[in-house]
Amino acid sequence: MTNTQNAQPTHPPSQPPEPDPPxxxxxxxxxxxxxxxxxxxxxxxxxxxxTSAAGAVAAGLTAAGASVPVLxxxxx
Length: 76
Hints:
With 76 residues, the protein is an all-alpha fold. The chain has helices at 26-48, 53-74. The longest helix has 23 residues, at 26-48.
């Protein structure tokens, strides 16, 4: 009779298990962070110009969204 509770996993000792792939690629992370920085800067500048808070947020979100395709083609 074989004892199955003490069975060891059968991984070859020379090959460790493969790590999980990253959630986002480095390219995607750089593009999204740069777009966020652009959006925050433009939103702050718009707020300092005297626009309402809602207008500054809208300007920042628009700038961040519009910069993603441009940054995607520039960052390679």
